Amino acid sequence: TEYLLIECKTYGKEFDKEFIRMKKDGGQLFTYFKFSNKADVIMLYASELKDKGCIYRNEIVKIEDNYRTGDVKDFYEKWNKLTHNDGIWENPPYDFQLKKFTKQDLRELTEDEGKKLVDTAAGNSAPQNIKPNNDYPSLNIGDIENIKIPLPPFNVVTQIST
What we know:
Elements (H helix, E strand, L loop, with lengths): L3 E5 L4 H13 L1 H10 L4 E10 L2 E10 L9 H7 L32 H14 L5 E4 L2 E4 L7 E5 L2 E5 L4
Parallel strand pairs: 1-2
Antiparallel strand pairs: 2-3, 4-5, 6-7
Helix pairs in contact: 1-2
């Protein structure tokens, strides 16, 4: 059987554009998958050489049995909208496993990463969901209250309410 289907994009804007499209309607990757329905894992991937090393991004979808029936639209509607960033390169071949996220995996964001995160969150939230809270912006996105996410050189407090 087929194990992995990879859609490769140019690192940066082309990857970002396709990832947005994937989240919107499945994009090219879902269309390619529906040609055969046999892969166990599909991945949107990009890499580039930088500072004498290789950096990469990937967004991985583990295929569930119910994703195999129907067309691209059906697959997209059944998909839980979750992607993973690990599980392929870290494991033996043909053995997709999610890595448990630990405190040691956390790293400080660069200023650009922080701004992009806040801009993306603000851009994807309805204006009525953004409320001031103790001099920090607040994003209304779920069930947990007052998660503080430090983003240099500013702080964001995410308030999640039911």
